[in-house]
Amino acid sequence: MGDVRFAKVVVFVNALVPLALLLWDLYHKRVGPNPLQFVTTTTGMLTLIFLSLTVAITPLRKIFGLNSLVKLRRMLGLFAFFYGSLHLLTYIWFDRGFNLFSVVPDVIGRPFILAGMLAFLLTVPLAITSTNKMVKRLGGKRWAKLHQLVYLSVIAGVVHFWMLVKSDIRLPLTFAFIVFFLLGYRLLTKYAPAQQPTTSLFPRE
Amino acid sequence: MQAAVMAGTATASMLLYRRLNPPPAPRVEGEKIAEVAKAPAENAVKEGLAVNDQLTPLDSITNYNNFYEFDTSKSGVAYAAKGFVTRPWTVSVEGLVNKPKVFDIDELLKFPLEERIYRLRCVEGWSMVIPWVGFPLSKLLEKVEPTAQARYVAFQTLLDPQRMPNQRTGVLDWPYVEGLRLDEAMHPLTIMATGMYDETLPPQDGAPIRLVVPWKYGFKSIKSVVKITLVADEPPTTWNIQAPDEYGFYSNVNPNVPHPRWSQATERRIGEYGRRNTLLFNGYGDQVAHLYQGMDLLKFF
What we know:
The complex is a heterodimer of chains A (205) and B (301). With 205 residues, chain A is mainly α. The longest helix of chain A is centred in the first third of the chain and has 30 residues. The radius of gyration of chain A is 18 Å and the shape is globular. With 301 residues, chain B is α+β, with helices and mostly antiparallel strands. The longest helix of chain B has 19 residues. Chain B is globular and about 80 Å long. At the A-B interface, helix 1, helix 2 and helix 4 of A face helix 1 and helix 3 of B.
């Protein structure tokens, strides 16, 4: 991880690979009998994957001592926000036909959408305050506090996924395990005694 | 070095994406069914034997399946069901009947076959229009002569984890079972389908023989049937066992009874972009509403 700049480019390109393939398949009409459902599930999965990757950074760098990993975190978080926006857009565009008035009764009629909506809305302030300037303006401590909202977002995201499957819960369960581990790790390190005090340039979570 | 890392990771990402999203399975052609009686045009729609809506393309019907015995992903069923062997195959019709009988599939295929163009509404909120080939279930039940005690009909799918690999998992309580009230089973719109689009059924759509009840949610139309039992009491049904508050015994299509986790007011017709309003009894109210006269459909959902 010597060359952070290069690592960033690698992550950036790889994060765009699924989008490129999705657009390619859409253009060639290779997205199955229900294209809207395909786009919705694909962007939804990508959102959950990138949210999980974002909250995986802190445990990974602590366990493996890879402190520079934190420099990739903002980009991963923004990709989660990006795919989440696409996911929401496909719902509002195709499922609701941009009729925002029909969103409210639909959210009430389909509670899993409420959980998804919450997961997305929680990421909005995080995306807005993701710039260096905003970190300075808010101050490291307050900024870090605000960005703990990502924990709630990823939990709401998994709940959203869990609520919409009929009986095969293996995939949502897998995400639940991963998120449970990643968030549980934080609780453990926070309350575990006899931690060596570490100094870091970067705000602790 | 950097170029190699970039190319390597990007290729890995592409392969991973492709693995998770395989292209549709190539279609395996069924056998052509020679003699199919087409419904006379003037009465067909009025009697519910056909609908005027555009047919769902065969490729969509064969690549978008809920058939958990093979796979829980709708696009994965066609792959997992490829090569499913349907010979020998028998359907045992037994229980409260005077003449129980084990029918060989080839005997059932010799029943006079009719085309029925039905809407199919899935409980998940999507729908199709399918030109089935089959015969009324009543024709089969008449042959075994149900006794006066028989009030319900229970159906069972094949149980064979060798041939239906996902039966090794516990996603549902195997074998899949379904049931109808006897008057529902005897209704002229209730058919045993052996084909669609004038071909024999592909494995992913319930080969070699399945039930089709067009006014109920799709999961009632049990696939790959091996046993039909006439019984006195309401038989257990798979999705009702799985989640009793979400899936009732009747499971008639009803826009006014929401699923506890989503609304049933609208549906997406496969191939269309907007959503349509869902019709009571899936649009077959004229033919079947009398079966439920005086029943509280909110209670008996």
